């Protein structure tokens, strides 16, 4: 376990940061965002984008590869989706001042998939450039 966590410590810290943000009570009237309608969904998407990039970077370091393999990408997607669902369940059951929302889970999933896709594209572009050299 200690050997595995050394690759994922930035991911774990970011996951705790997300959990902290999602547990803070906020006082926004229903249907209104902080800056605009849907800002909350954009924040969820961005937080999970960063989480997925950190998680993929940890996977690349752990498995000593230059890119993530498809099975690692699928596993990472399942873990990120599960974490997003866990947070939404906590918001609906434990953090009663917050509300669990399917749209938040959708935004989490989209952000996570965007991050994994960004890592795949970036790592393949770097590998393609290295092959030409």
From TrEMBL:
Residues in domain VanZ-like? 36-120
InterPro entries xref list? VanZ-like (IPR006976)
Membrane-crossing segments per the record: 7-28, 34-57, 78-97, 109-127
Which keywords does this Swiss-Prot/TrEMBL entry list?
A: Membrane, Transmembrane, Transmembrane helix
Tell me if Cytoplasm is a UniProt keyword of this record: no
Give the matching NCBIfam families.
vanZ_1
What is the designated name of this protein?
Answer: VanZ family protein
Q: Which organism is it from?
A: Mucilaginibacter litoreus
UniProt lineage: Bacteria, Pseudomonadati, Bacteroidota, Sphingobacteriia, Sphingobacteriales
């Amino acid at each position: 376990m200690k050997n595995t966590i050394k690759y994922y410590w930035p991911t774990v810290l970011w996951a705790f940061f997300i959990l902290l943000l999602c547990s803070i009570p906020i006082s926004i009237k229903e249907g209104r965002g902080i800056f605009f309608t849907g800002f909350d969904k954009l924040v969820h998407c961005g937080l999970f984008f960063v989480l997925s990039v950190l998680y993929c970077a940890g996977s690349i370091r752990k498995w000593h590869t230059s890119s993530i393999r498809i099975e690692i990408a699928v596993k990472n997607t399942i873990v990120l989706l599960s974490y997003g669902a866990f947070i939404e369940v906590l918001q609906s059951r434990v953090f009663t001042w917050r509300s669990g929302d399917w749209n938040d889970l959708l935004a989490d999933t989209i952000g996570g998939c965007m991050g994994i896709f960004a890592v795949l594209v970036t790592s393949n572009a770097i590998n393609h450039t290295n092959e030409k050299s």
